[in-house]
Amino acid sequence: MMCRLIQWPRKVAQAGLLGLFILISLTVHAQDDEFNVDGFKAVPILTGSTAYFTRVTAGQYQDAPTVSPLLLLPMGDKWLVEAKGSYGDTFSKNAQGDYNGTISYGMAYGQIDYIANRYMTFVAGRFTTPFNIYGERLAPNWIRALQPNPLTSPVTSGSGLGGMIRGGFSGTDSLNVTYAAYFSANNTHHLLATDRSTGGRLGFFLPRQRLEVGASFQQVLQADRPHSSGLFMEWQPNRAPLTVRSEYARSSGLKGSAYWIESVYRLSQIPSLRRLELVGRGEQFFAAANISAATVKKLGALGKDTNEGDFGMNYYLRSDVRASASYGRQFVLGRDANLWTVGMTYRFIMPMLPQGGAQ
Amino acid sequence: MKMKFLLAAFLVVSALSLGLMANASSGDKDAAKDSSSSAVSAEQKAQNESMRIEGEKRFRSNCGRCHAAPPKFPPRMMATIVRHMRVRATITDQDMRLILRYMTE
What we know:
Number of strands of chain A: 16
Largest sheet of chain A: 16 strands, antiparallel, barrel
CATH architecture of chain A: Beta Barrel
Low-confidence stretches of chain A: 28-35
Shape of chain B: globular
Strand content of chain B: under 5%
Structural class of chain B: mainly alpha
Structural class of chain A: mainly beta
Helix content of chain A: 10-25%
Number of helices of chain B: 5
Oligomer: heterodimer
CATH topology of chain A: Porin
Number of domains of chain A: 1
Strand order of the largest sheet of chain A: 1-2-3-4-5-6-7-8-9-10-11-12-13-14-15-16
Mean pLDDT of chain B: 75
Mean pLDDT of chain A: 87
């Protein structure tokens, strides 16, 4: 039994490699012959977002201005360099009532993409781990419907350093299939730390029903070698301006498991409130079983079962400027807390060359 | 040791695939240019309109799943944005083309 457990990650790696061979051999003949659609030459772009949020967590005030620039540098018809950084300063009151600032900065991702053909893109560098959908697609603060991170976020490693294959194709007119598989090396740099790991994601999108479901897997190849698995779904019914999203993540190690379900309703049917959306999210975190008191202390927020409910609203002053406010109640054994957030986000975008928008 | 072998095999296969793909010919480019320069007939207009509708549909179902609809940017900027989103959100090639066409009209 023990032997089987040790062999299992190797089998996963072998199966992954076999899948890779099949994918490459299937797509190597499907060359992209007209990627440069309509002859538009892509230009370098600087985009990203700035935000200013005031948070009150269990009575503790924090003011947090942040900026997250993203540089997009296309090269030829098939290459794209993407680099996203972040810089923030968090001001909070100390015991004397004075405000102290804590600076934080880092690189979310810095990667080079090669669009090999219609179905496959190779990625190399530092990238966001393709585990479920929150980290890759919903995390930017101008996109996320509620500013507090969901409880699933700490369960899996957020970044990788290595290579990834990803893409999508239409199975039929009513089904799109998307995939991503990666390998990451261990990196101990304090700003760019990553685990040696491998994993991937498989998604199915039904355009007519506007429903996406999928699953993710991650195997850490160092230390205790824990593995994580996840499920996700996103649905936008055709008849209502509603979005329902959910994620579930479970780790075999000390990080426990969690899920969240979120709904966003845009009041587009009421002319005077069409820029307003209402958001609600419920989530639960379950700490790993049989962990010692010392481990619980070391794990901090990951050491105790947590229930949380959040409600918020976003008002779009323009398509790129949004005011947000939310209230959440967190239930942790012996330490319930109120979570208030209010602030604004601005998404900026500009070409990096003169007359970047001209034909 | 075995993991190192697997990684080396992965890198070799990836490099071979990249080389093969880089050397592949791009056959239908001229045909696409010819068709775009031909006279716009009523039939083409109807086809363009149906592609616009389809593009809008794909835009709403793909982009609108995660964020509010952005304004239309100049075509060369849209080409970069769509390429970025194709990778980030694993948008299919067909959807990407329809979205780019819709967003640059």
